[in-house]
Amino acid sequence: MRILLTNDDGIDAPGIAAMLEALEDAHDVVVVAPSKERSGASHALTMLEPIRLVQKGERRWAVGGTPVDCVYLGLHRVFSEPPEVVISGINKGANLGDDVFYSGTVGAAREAALNQIPAIAVSLDTQNWSSSTSLHFESAANIALKVLDSIKAKPLSPGAFVNLNVPNRPLSEIPTVEVCRLGRRHYEPVVEERIDPRAHAYYWIGGEPLSERMGEQTDGWWLHKGHAAITPLGLNNTSENHLSQLKHWNITNSSGRGNERT
Questions:
Q1: Helix (H) or strand (E) holding 179
Q2: Does residue 170 sit in helix, strand or coil?
Q3: Which end of the chain is more exposed for a tag (fewer CB within 10 A), N or C?
Q4: For residue 28, what are the domain limits?
Q5: Do the domain assignments include residue 89?
Q6: Distance between CA 133 and CA 73 in Å, rounded?
Q7: Within-domain flag for 192
Q8: Which of 107, 222, 229, 104 lies closest to 166, judged by CA?
């Protein structure tokens, strides 16, 4: 398969190297990844400054922008024929629950879905399984290959993509891959102020993840138990349950007529 491989940890990160190694023998892979780490970039697209696209080797390109920039340039500049799949990762650290709104790894996969190309966001959970002395990127790569085979055998619907999280364990110690919904996970609201050598304040934001609301049978719940977790994601952000409520709001337009229903 023709595959565009990207990430948000940067083109030289070990996770993308492990994913490339697992793919390149059987697939036609082109790497288009950020020139430096862009974690937390979400779905940011660079539009107010130039983007550098630098070839770093055969079928390997570094982008001076976000993960979404990488997919955009990959689809519309690097590839002469569209890729069949986009793989984003392997991210060092899980992308669970609310993380999908912040993650550059997931943002890259979403950009592929916006262009009607199936995508897999792949992450290795190094938080819950930080006691391991090794980073088992090969476990995440192996499971990602199985997901890729499934996409080839039974394609995703247009606009769909998947979020795969794998515990940092040897493959033999991961009992199952569970299909599940997202949980809820946010981060301790920390703003740490520091002072630079010229007496100006600067800030580091974001604390430790708070996973107590992940919920039973959700992605974080399964991952904490040592299973891999896969969640289908889509592009429809409409809150369908609230449509009827908003239709009963009395919102007036410039002529003074509202939309309130009787």
A1: strand 177-179
A2: coil
A3: C
A4: 2-185+212-247
A5: yes
A6: 37
A7: no
A8: 229
- Please tell me the distance from the alpha carbon of residue 26 to that of residue 239, in angstroms, as a whole number: 41
Q: How far apart are CA 93 and CA 231, in angstroms?
A: 16
Contact 164, 143 (CB under 8 A): yes
Distance CA 45, CA 41 (A): 9
Q: Which pairing describes strands 60-63 and 53-57: parallel, antiparallel, or unpaired?
A: antiparallel
pLDDT digits (tens, 9 = 90+) for 91-119: 999 999 999 999 999 999 999 999 999 99
Q: How distant, in Å, are the alpha carbons of 28, 32, 40, 80, 162 from that of 95?
A: 27, 21, 10, 31, 12
Query: pTM of the entire structure?
Result: 0.92
The closest of 42, 88, 40, 45 to 65, measured between CA atoms, is 45
CATH number of residue 124's parent domain: 3.40.1210.10
Instruction: Evaluate whether 124 touches 15 at the Cβ level (below 8 Å).
Output: yes
Name the nearest CA neighbour of 193 among 210, 205, 177, 206.
205
How many domains are contained in the chain?
A: 1
pLDDT in tens, 171-219: 999 999 999 999 988 777 889 999 999 999 999 988 777 666 688 999 9
Give the span between the Cα atoms of 179 and 228, in whole angstroms.
Answer: 9
Q: How crowded is residue 98: how many other Cβ atoms within 10 Å of its Cβ?
A: 18
Whether residue 102 lies inside any domain: the answer is yes
Taken in order 82, 84, 88, 90, the sign of the CA dihedral is negative
Assess if residue 193 is contained within a domain: no
